[in-house]
Amino acid sequence: MLIPHDTRIALDTVVDLVNTAPEGGPGDGLADIEALHGFAERHHISGVGVLTEKDLYAVRDVRARFAEIFAAPDAPTAAGLVNRLVAAAGTTPQLTNHDGYDWHVHYFAPDASLSDHLAADCGMALAFFVVAGEQERLRRCEAPDCRHAFVDLSRNRSRRYCSSRTCGNRLHVAAYRARRREAAR
Which residues contact 126 (CB under 8 A, 6 or more apart)? Predict the structure, then answer.
Protein backbone atom coordinates (compact mmCIF):
# COMPACT_ATOMS: atom_id res chain seq x y z
CA MET A 1 0.00 0.00 0.00
CA LEU A 2 1.50 3.31 -1.10
CA ILE A 3 1.04 5.95 1.58
CA PRO A 4 1.98 9.58 0.83
CA HIS A 5 4.29 11.33 3.27
CA ASP A 6 1.65 13.64 4.75
CA THR A 7 -0.77 10.75 5.27
CA ARG A 8 1.96 8.77 7.03
CA ILE A 9 2.65 11.70 9.35
CA ALA A 10 -1.08 11.97 10.12
CA LEU A 11 -1.25 8.21 10.81
CA ASP A 12 1.70 8.41 13.21
CA THR A 13 0.03 11.36 14.91
CA VAL A 14 -3.37 9.68 15.32
CA VAL A 15 -1.79 6.49 16.67
CA ASP A 16 0.25 8.49 19.18
CA LEU A 17 -2.83 10.50 20.13
CA VAL A 18 -4.97 7.40 20.73
CA ASN A 19 -2.15 5.86 22.76
CA THR A 20 -2.08 8.84 25.14
CA ALA A 21 -5.41 7.69 26.59
CA PRO A 22 -5.27 6.26 30.11
CA GLU A 23 -6.45 2.85 28.89
CA GLY A 24 -3.46 2.75 26.52
CA GLY A 25 -0.92 2.79 29.33
CA PRO A 26 0.00 4.26 32.69
CA GLY A 27 -1.92 7.50 33.16
CA ASP A 28 -3.22 10.06 30.74
CA GLY A 29 -0.60 11.26 28.26
CA LEU A 30 -2.65 14.45 27.89
CA ALA A 31 -3.01 15.14 31.59
CA ASP A 32 -2.61 18.90 31.28
CA ILE A 33 -2.01 21.78 28.88
CA GLU A 34 1.76 21.31 29.10
CA ALA A 35 1.40 17.70 27.92
CA LEU A 36 -0.87 18.84 25.08
CA HIS A 37 1.68 21.44 24.03
CA GLY A 38 4.41 18.78 24.14
CA PHE A 39 2.29 16.51 21.94
CA ALA A 40 1.84 19.30 19.38
CA GLU A 41 5.59 20.02 19.40
CA ARG A 42 6.55 16.33 19.03
CA HIS A 43 4.35 16.09 15.97
CA HIS A 44 5.44 19.45 14.53
CA ILE A 45 1.87 20.76 14.40
CA SER A 46 2.16 24.33 13.22
CA GLY A 47 -0.03 27.28 14.15
CA VAL A 48 -0.96 25.91 17.57
CA GLY A 49 -0.77 29.22 19.42
CA VAL A 50 -1.78 29.50 23.05
CA LEU A 51 -3.53 26.38 24.32
CA THR A 52 -6.26 26.48 26.96
CA GLU A 53 -8.30 24.03 29.02
CA LYS A 54 -10.92 24.20 26.26
CA ASP A 55 -8.32 22.93 23.76
CA LEU A 56 -7.29 20.15 26.13
CA TYR A 57 -10.88 18.89 26.54
CA ALA A 58 -11.55 19.21 22.80
CA VAL A 59 -8.45 17.18 21.89
CA ARG A 60 -9.36 14.52 24.47
CA ASP A 61 -12.80 14.30 22.83
CA VAL A 62 -11.22 13.89 19.39
CA ARG A 63 -8.91 11.24 20.87
CA ALA A 64 -11.92 9.28 22.14
CA ARG A 65 -13.57 9.46 18.74
CA PHE A 66 -10.40 8.19 17.05
CA ALA A 67 -10.35 5.30 19.54
CA GLU A 68 -13.89 4.42 18.40
CA ILE A 69 -12.67 4.26 14.80
CA PHE A 70 -9.87 1.86 15.77
CA ALA A 71 -12.48 -0.28 17.55
CA ALA A 72 -15.00 -0.19 14.69
CA PRO A 73 -16.12 -3.72 13.80
CA ASP A 74 -16.52 -3.04 10.09
CA ALA A 75 -15.97 -0.50 7.31
CA PRO A 76 -19.49 0.98 7.35
CA THR A 77 -19.19 1.73 11.07
CA ALA A 78 -15.70 3.20 10.62
CA ALA A 79 -16.90 5.28 7.66
CA GLY A 80 -19.76 6.76 9.66
CA LEU A 81 -17.46 7.61 12.56
CA VAL A 82 -14.88 9.22 10.25
CA ASN A 83 -17.57 11.18 8.40
CA ARG A 84 -18.97 12.66 11.61
CA LEU A 85 -15.51 13.51 12.95
CA VAL A 86 -14.30 15.20 9.77
CA ALA A 87 -17.58 17.06 9.21
CA ALA A 88 -17.52 18.44 12.75
CA ALA A 89 -13.99 19.75 12.12
CA GLY A 90 -15.22 21.90 9.22
CA THR A 91 -12.65 20.67 6.74
CA THR A 92 -11.21 23.12 4.25
CA PRO A 93 -8.97 21.16 1.87
CA GLN A 94 -6.13 23.21 0.44
CA LEU A 95 -2.91 22.47 -1.39
CA THR A 96 0.27 23.51 0.37
CA ASN A 97 4.02 23.02 0.16
CA HIS A 98 6.08 23.81 3.23
CA ASP A 99 9.07 22.69 5.27
CA GLY A 100 10.77 21.16 2.25
CA TYR A 101 7.80 18.93 1.31
CA ASP A 102 6.29 19.02 -2.15
CA TRP A 103 2.62 19.76 -2.75
CA HIS A 104 0.19 17.96 -0.48
CA VAL A 105 -3.28 18.53 0.94
CA HIS A 106 -4.09 20.01 4.33
CA TYR A 107 -7.68 19.35 5.31
CA PHE A 108 -7.96 22.00 8.02
CA ALA A 109 -8.43 25.74 7.78
CA PRO A 110 -5.32 27.85 8.46
CA ASP A 111 -6.85 29.20 11.69
CA ALA A 112 -8.26 25.85 12.89
CA SER A 113 -8.07 24.87 16.53
CA LEU A 114 -5.72 22.04 17.44
CA SER A 115 -8.64 19.64 17.85
CA ASP A 116 -10.09 20.56 14.43
CA HIS A 117 -6.62 20.29 12.88
CA LEU A 118 -6.20 16.78 14.29
CA ALA A 119 -9.76 15.71 13.47
CA ALA A 120 -9.52 16.88 9.87
CA ASP A 121 -5.99 15.78 8.95
CA CYS A 122 -5.89 12.53 10.90
CA GLY A 123 -9.53 11.76 10.11
CA MET A 124 -8.80 12.00 6.40
CA ALA A 125 -5.75 9.74 6.79
CA LEU A 126 -8.01 7.12 8.36
CA ALA A 127 -10.63 7.75 5.67
CA PHE A 128 -8.12 6.69 3.01
CA PHE A 129 -7.81 3.30 4.72
CA VAL A 130 -11.57 2.83 4.72
CA VAL A 131 -11.80 3.89 1.06
CA ALA A 132 -9.01 1.46 0.13
CA GLY A 133 -10.83 -1.39 1.88
CA GLU A 134 -8.03 -1.58 4.44
CA GLN A 135 -9.92 -0.58 7.61
CA GLU A 136 -8.85 -3.82 9.29
CA ARG A 137 -5.29 -2.46 9.34
CA LEU A 138 -6.36 -0.09 12.13
CA ARG A 139 -5.68 -2.35 15.08
CA ARG A 140 -5.07 -2.71 18.79
CA CYS A 141 -2.13 -4.67 20.21
CA GLU A 142 -3.05 -8.28 21.01
CA ALA A 143 -0.77 -8.47 24.04
CA PRO A 144 -3.04 -9.04 27.06
CA ASP A 145 -1.44 -6.22 29.07
CA CYS A 146 -1.30 -3.72 26.19
CA ARG A 147 -4.06 -2.20 24.10
CA HIS A 148 -2.03 0.34 22.15
CA ALA A 149 -3.34 1.31 18.74
CA PHE A 150 -1.25 0.82 15.63
CA VAL A 151 -1.62 0.73 11.85
CA ASP A 152 -0.62 -2.61 10.36
CA LEU A 153 1.41 -1.72 7.29
CA SER A 154 2.81 -5.23 6.82
CA ARG A 155 2.41 -6.65 3.34
CA ASN A 156 0.25 -9.58 4.44
CA ARG A 157 -1.68 -7.77 7.20
CA SER A 158 -0.24 -10.09 9.85
CA ARG A 159 1.07 -7.72 12.49
CA ARG A 160 -0.43 -8.50 15.90
CA TYR A 161 1.53 -6.32 18.31
CA CYS A 162 2.18 -2.59 18.58
CA SER A 163 5.89 -3.39 18.79
CA SER A 164 7.61 -6.65 17.96
CA ARG A 165 10.51 -5.55 20.17
CA THR A 166 8.44 -5.13 23.31
CA CYS A 167 5.00 -6.75 23.29
CA GLY A 168 5.70 -9.36 20.63
CA ASN A 169 9.06 -10.36 22.02
CA ARG A 170 7.78 -10.45 25.60
CA LEU A 171 4.93 -12.82 24.64
CA HIS A 172 7.19 -15.03 22.52
CA VAL A 173 9.69 -15.35 25.38
CA ALA A 174 6.87 -16.14 27.83
CA ALA A 175 5.53 -18.84 25.49
CA TYR A 176 9.03 -20.28 25.04
CA ARG A 177 9.56 -20.42 28.81
CA ALA A 178 6.16 -22.05 29.31
CA ARG A 179 7.03 -24.73 26.72
CA ARG A 180 10.38 -25.32 28.44
CA ARG A 181 8.68 -25.68 31.84
CA GLU A 182 6.15 -28.09 30.35
CA ALA A 183 8.87 -30.15 28.68
CA ALA A 184 10.85 -30.31 31.95
CA ARG A 185 7.94 -31.97 33.82
Answer: 11, 14, 66, 69, 78, 82, 138
Report how far residue 59's alpha carbon sits from residue 116's, in angstroms, rounded to the nearest whole number: 8
Question: For the chain, what is the radius of gyration of the CA atoms?
Answer: 18
Residue from 134, 161, 115 nearest 17 by CA:
115
Domains in the chain with CATH codes:
5-184 (1.10.3300.10)
CB of 114 closer than 8 Å to CB of 59: yes
Q: In whole angstroms, give the CA distance from residue 92 to residue 110.
A: 9
Closest C-alpha to 1, from 135, 126, 154, 159: 154
Q: Which residues pair with 139 in a beta bridge?
A: 150
Q: Name the stretches of the chain with pLDDT < 70.
A: 1, 24-26, 164-165, 169-172, 174-176, 178
